[in-house]
């Protein structure tokens, strides 16, 4: 069975795309694959069926519904996704430069970024986005934000901007040793926002596990291959990051960040407006910005 042109290509995206049409046993299997990605699908068909508590024919029906001709093709796609997760910056650069088109890098890079943004926004569930934004706008909940080695800049930016709009926003420093005091104060219902794109960082998983144990709502902003933190996430937003470079692009993630900021501002405008006026008064007293 050929996969439809324009349809999702990654396995978790295919599962999400077809989920409503799956039978109960197929949904059970799909959930098992998603929760135990990628390990569940790397073994034999029999082991996958046993692990999910379904029959072998159920496995075959599911992989065909996902657009694969059979289990070997499903596994080949799974292995390709694992390789993409683990790919080093040097390997990425070599792949992009071999056979690269002759167009100028500005055009090639911009085209890739625009594709990433279009695909990312096209696959965002609006109801999930709105529900997450409502949590971030809830002043009774504290919001804690952090990211990995590369994405920490996005986390700091989100926290800095959101702290203007509402109180109770904390950016965790990159050092894991500084996290326990903040985690100790997490209350049930508080929100932890994690940024984690390939290559995924073990400390992000440790943080998610501890926060989940304390009843925090976990929001994950990740890439299309999905950080392992997804196993603990209440909300997951996946951005496409592939560009002709040794590094991934965070433009689509930044757009998600700024859209969340706009949504929180809209929902809390009276409080946000008051805080902004008070902040401007402090800036004026300190003569922080030039006038005229």
Keywords:
292 residues; alpha/beta; five-stranded parallel β-sheet; globular
Task: Give structural notes.
By secondary structure, this protein is of the alpha/beta class. It has helices at residues 11-18, 24-35, 45-52, 56-65, 71-86, 89-97, 105-122, 126-137, 152-165, 179-184, 202-213, 251-267, 269-286; strands at residues 143-147, 169-171, 191-196, 217-223, 235-239. It has 13 helices and 5 strands. Helix 9 runs parallel beside helix 12. It is globular. The N and C termini lie far apart (66 Å).
Compile the SSE list and pairings.
Blueprint: H1 11-18, H2 24-35, H3 45-52, H4 56-65, H5 71-86, H6 89-97, H7 105-122, H8 126-137, E1 143-147, H9 152-165, E2 169-171, H10 179-184, E3 191-196, H11 202-213, E4 217-223, E5 235-239, H12 251-267, H13 269-286
Helix pairs in contact: 2-3, 2-4, 3-4, 7-12, 8-12, 9-12
